[in-house]
Amino acid sequence: MAIIEEIMNCFKEKFGSEGDIRAYFAPGRVNLIGEHTDYNGGHVFPCALSMGNYGVARKRSDKTVRWYNMTYPDNGVQSADITKLAPTDEGLWYNYQHGVLWAFMQNGYEIPCGYDMVMKSDMPAGSGLSASASIEELAAIIVKDLFNLDVTMVDCAKMGQYSENNYNGMNCGIMDQFASAMGKKDNAIFLDTATLEYEYVPLNLKNEKIVITNSKVKHSLADSAYNDRRRQSEEALKDLQTVTDIKTLGDLDEAGFEKYSSAIKDPVNYKRAKHAVYENQRTIKAVKALRAGDMAEFGKLMIDSHVSLRDDYETSCKEIDILVEEALKLPGVIGSRITGGGFGGCSVSIVKNDAVEEFKEKVGNVYTERTGLTAEFYIADAADGARKLY
Ligand code: GLA
Q1: Is residue 1 scored above 70 in pLDDT?
Q2: Among the atoms of ligand 1, which is closest to the Cα of residue 37?
Q3: How far lies 329's CA from each of 47, 360, 376, in Å?
Q4: Which of 5, 274, 341, 383 has its CA 20 to 30 A from that of 39?
Q5: Rounded to the nearest whole angstrom, what is the distance from the C-alpha of residue 340 to the centroid of ligand 1?
């Protein structure tokens, strides 16, 4: 049975079959390059995935929301009064939904009543593929559609980020929500996070596949380590602003960084800023290379990105370094790097079509030998963003 029918049946069982019940989907994302640049005014290059969170919903006449997540049946039916939502730092799935409703209201949108909703995910959670942004964008598309709000999908992305920053206490940039809201089939999104200008870039790879490898680890304190990185980047920016007139680290290129970087007092902050500046430039170059069909250059930039995330930004971890190291031993692998916020999660690799099976087998086996863990592999298939299904 298609997942959406399964959810619909569950909805009818839990909440009754009458009235106008609508179905929606919002995807996760994989970032190809441009990591930890989105809160530093740089560029990112993610694509939405075909996996994500599905939901069906129906308006209520009072101020209650009720939701049930088939992925977490033990949580039971959650309910809340929409007039009483308040920020929290317990990172549970329903808080991402509450947060989005709250964000719309905080930003002046009228939410006249609550709704009932059942959802289910077909993507791994806590794996750096933005399951949380997918839940946020699912909530955003539901709110937009059920209440007929005059908001764009870019506004939905902004609401998701606003809610995560202000309701859930995670100071993320806008990349994940933007990719989930704005994804386009067979394309990646080249987004300038300083201006939110974006272009779709076709991912018509004829000879290669984008392979995601899930390390199955998530190190604790990842959210606080992420917030630390953001703070360190901001401190470095402040130091740089004493010697040059820039708004974000994304305003500097490599030469500019080398010219002014002695102003950064703290050696750790220096490394963070170096990553942000160089990674932004790498992202611009990678998109150029892709457009020119130069996959070798694209792959090389991915590898440089990984090294910089490992050594300067320090958001990789032992397990992902092993995945990348083993991937790069295979001749059919063009590039490989950690993707997403880091401290676990997934790597993304560009693998020649005829090397994909060997990749899964060899990387999978050595990973188990070296870590005792079992990796999972997904072929990324760039897909459309959040939408109403019917
Ligand atoms: C997480 C955040 C994004 C971005 C990435 C790192 O996924 O939610 O905003 O900062 O990490 O590139």
Answers
A1: no
A2: 12
A3: 26, 13, 19
A4: 383
A5: 6
